[in-house]
Amino acid sequence: MDEEHVARAALARLAEPGDTALGAALRVHGPQEVLRVLQDDGPLPTEFRKRDPAGYRVRLGGPSAADDLATVARLGGRFIVPGDRHWPTQLDDLGDARPVGLWVRGPVPLRHAALRSVAVVGARAGSDYGTYVTHELAIGLAEQGWTVVSGGAYGIDGAAHRGSLAGGGPTVAVLACGVDVAYPRGHERLLARIGETGTLVSELPPGGTPSRVRFVERNRVIAALSRGTVVVEAALRSGALITARRARALGRMVIGIPGPVTAPQSAGVHQLLREEDTMLVTGAAEVIENVGLIGEDLAPRQSGPATVWDTLGAEAARVLEAVPPGGTAGTEAIARDAGLGRTAALGHLEELLRLGLVRHAPSTAPEDHWQRRRDL
Question: Is 3.40.50.2000 the CATH number for 308-372?
Answer without folding.
Answer: no
